[in-house]
Amino acid sequence: MLLEKINRIIQQKTSLLCVGLDIDIERIPSFLHKEVDPLFLFNREIIEATRDYAAAFKLNMAFYEVLGVPGWELLERTLAVLPRDVLIIADAKRGDVGHSSRKYAETYFQTYHFDAVTVSPYLGYDSLEPFLEYQDKGIFVLALTSNPGSMDFQYLTVDHTPLYVKVAEKVMEWNFLYGNCGLVVGGTHANEIGRLREMAPALPFLVPGIGAQGGNLEVAVRYATDDEGRSALFNASRSILYASDRADFAGTARERARQLRDQINLLLSIYKNLNFMDEN
Amino acid sequence: MLLEKINRIIQQKTSLLCVGLDIDIERIPSFLHKEVDPLFLFNREIIEATRDYAAAFKLNMAFYEVLGVPGWELLERTLAVLPRDVLIIADAKRGDVGHSSRKYAETYFQTYHFDAVTVSPYLGYDSLEPFLEYQDKGIFVLALTSNPGSMDFQYLTVDHTPLYVKVAEKVMEWNFLYGNCGLVVGGTHANEIGRLREMAPALPFLVPGIGAQGGNLEVAVRYATDDEGRSALFNASRSILYASDRADFAGTARERARQLRDQINLLLSIYKNLNFMDEN
Q1: Quick check: is A93 catalytic?
Q2: Residue A215 with chain B: CB contacts under 8 Å
């Protein structure tokens, strides 16, 4: 069960933070460029520095794919140094007709051993079925995203209901099978997040865009978590990874991750009347 | 301009056939397994055998990704032996928020030199903008797919209009910028294909599902092409690639490709009053 797995980790780590490993040669500290393997070195340092504060790590496949063959080697080596007590998410946003989706599911759950993968809903049930059949794994289905383009289709109204709500309804149905579904919900709009949380109390939310993309952390934490202040993971990538260009980049990343973890917990203590902070 | 490029190729090759290189170790002839590099060998033989009859080759990324690092090496080597007089399509169905989509666009148009890529519309304009900025390349946006799951969202009605038509309307807008857009339109339903073709006379269609997926070739060819019997590519993958398990697999694939090319041209001569057949 994806929800239980996530909430167990949240409890163990006292954290709802997801660290996004969006590796980018143009953004890592320039002094690393003289190293033999700067990208892996950077990932390894970031992972070591932030693992104490992370409930999850998310690898955005775009940043690995763009490197070609070395990018997939980097992915493999990065997966090998990730800790085992967190959720490992492939941010792949895949979705294809059945026999192709079967290969994508195999990629992320067998070739690589991710715990969960983000997927796109547009092709409907049989495009996600091959992922669902990995019952001990999980999918986060794109529902509402925080980018401007979300207005183009996600907000279109079907029977007085926005499309992103229709998507969430379907995902709730699919979740009845094996309990391994979640939603990707952008961290910007209070009303929309609250509506989705009310509709889907048993789905975990993956909330991107709270860092560099400018989402509102307060709104996101207040409305995306459940009454117990759980069932959601908040992702920050660039704001943690690229906080410093200097030799202390890992220390700075660690400090940023700790701050963000604590900010989330503080907001939970305010809005959900919880005492997460005491436990640290 | 994507449409002009496709129609020029169609004219030069007297073919609207796209051959889908869905490589699968479990489906290639078993005698190849004793070779050092059976997958590349298979791809190379299939390309050589079918290139005379193909206007395009389509590489479905799912089948390469699932192999891990060797899959991307296979992709690179396969791209290197593809002919230059056809359209090379990455069937990737990617789509992410802007800064991630920028990396995906770079992957397919710079790291690898595809002519076009399939993309998913769910995240809207800014998720596709990075692809569009490669003005001499092209995107095929998923509009209507031929799988059962297409009913889940694509047929939902927004202002008396199905979502897949709303998607097509947006793609027509985006095409005004640089003329490098097309649609993925499943080859099953005559009414829907005809409606899209009438709406979007200037968009090329990529029509999958006419082979093993059981789409109706007659309907697809009649309704997806324009009045001149062009502006569409019809993809077959498994029905060509895996037609024979024996030593003559390449010859059989060649024969299948020729037959399919001729069938399409025959249908064009019937429905569009064209004489493609005479030119061979």
Answers
A1: yes
A2: none
